[in-house]
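The passage that follows is intended for readers who have already worked through the single-chain material. We present the inputs for a multi-component assembly, then the predicted structure in tokenized form, and finally a short commentary. You are encouraged to pause after the input and sketch how you expect the pieces to fit together before reading on.
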Amino acid sequence: MEPRWKGKGFKAKALAEPMSKIVSQLQSSLIQSDAQGLLAGCTVLIAVKPEQTDLLDHSCFGKRIVTAEKDNEWFQLGLEEAFYLCFSLKCLKIVGDDKCPKDDVELWQCMISRKPNFPDFYKAYSHLRMKNWVVKSGLNYGVDFVAYRHHPSLVHSEYAVLVLSEGEDEGNGRLRLWSDLHCTTRVSGSVVKTLLVLRITKTGNGVASPSCLEKYTVVGRTIRRWHPEQCREDNVIGENRTKQQEALGKASLKTKFTQKHDLKLKPGLVGIERGFSLVSISLVFALISFIVSRWFWSN
Amino acid sequence: MEAVDWENSSGGSSDTEAYLQDTKYEDDEELHFTSGFISKLQFRKDKSRAHWINEIGMAEVVENKGKLWRTMGVVRSGKIYYSIEETLFLMEIGALLLLDDNGTSLSLNDIYAKVSGGSWELFEVYRHLKSLGYIVGQHGIAWSIKDAKSNRPSVSLQCSPQSSEVVDLESEDESSIVGPFNNMHINEARPVFDVYLPNSKFRKSSPGDPSFVICLTRGDLPSIADIEVLERQCGAIPLRFCHVEYGRVSFFSFDEVELPILP
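Having made your guess, compare it with the prediction:
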């Protein structure tokens, strides 16, 4: 599927200001202001300067909280977002109740205690973010994440992402039954997204520290519904394409006509097109013989 | 260039996505299929005739009429043999007169009775694709002797477990990997059909590689391990996994993908 840009010139605009650049601007700004976030439940709250709010908005980290405070703007970050800024980009410090910044291992364990499958989810999140995709919550669509090629105001998201862990209960019980698959692809499809399943495999044990992430691998698979009716019309072999399209178009018209008048078709499945070419050939012959006979008689 | 509203778009909750009409689903499928070709085909005046051979579970063509045989059945020792799916299909559209060992004609009832176990689902898949004009063959079974001798991977001459009469033993390829489709594979998912796009120039002597390989699972979804095994088996040919329930056939693909690194 091609990316669906939301307006004219948006593709060029995205190219002119790539996400990697915006994120690195955010990174520099946060480092400069020695930004700190407060771990509160399953969220990290940060107060930022007005100029930083644009950067957070543009790079799609967090959600703004509207408050009456004039000097500060408050944002709330998801666990993966906060950990990415802290651990991967090293531009945010995160404190708990004790107001002391947590080190990586401590923070990692805090995250896991709040979200047991945090390691897999974080691996998936960071895998996509590091490729400069924008990753947001997929809750609206019944999936884990949605991935955008650039800012959501410029482009529709292309992928609805599900994170599947390898292990005994393969995939945490997600997509176990065919009805699960039908459901998820249908929801994704109705909002024109492809279902992307990221399978996280771990070599080595233990989730004690974030360094275990290096041993994780991510393999992506797209799960799509295949429509043989559509596929057949998109691909034609063996005959001129436009001719075939005409014939197919006539065939579907004919099918509708015969249904309406309850007529019976000549047998043969591939024969519809042959039927038409036969009819047209015999018509041509009839015409030729008519012309010849008229010529003959007139002479 | 249109102005971009950065602020309000990053909230997440106000993600205004385009919602497509579900035109692809249910209703259209019904329209495509049930009111499609099958129900409107006239019974043929000239039916082909075939002899049902129980021992091999196939029909040996005695007399051929029409053109359907060009994309159906396998050729062995100069004769055409139809699988149970092909036989059922032809009988449903009235294109085949089937006889048993005594020369008595078999009814649709008789042939339906021969569909055992999971074969009905296989037939539904076959019928769905065949009715759309695709050319459907049994996976891994050569269309003809010439096809078997070509370099197509995992193709054998064997048609069914007891088909010793049908197989030309001298020229059977010993190294063919995939056995008859009735064999149970270790995994839950197995390839069942080779599907070719509609093609008036299709030849059993050189069919070429199929456009898709259809796989069926016995139980629930194929595991990733199953998918990987099948992908290795089928090489570059795309796989489509089908699911049959309540007379509806749906297909899915599970292709591996690597998202590009963006600028």
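Commentary: Confidence is low (pLDDT under 50) at residues 7-15, 21-42, 161-186 of chain B. Chain B touches chain A through 70 residues (CB under 8 Å). How closely did your sketch match?
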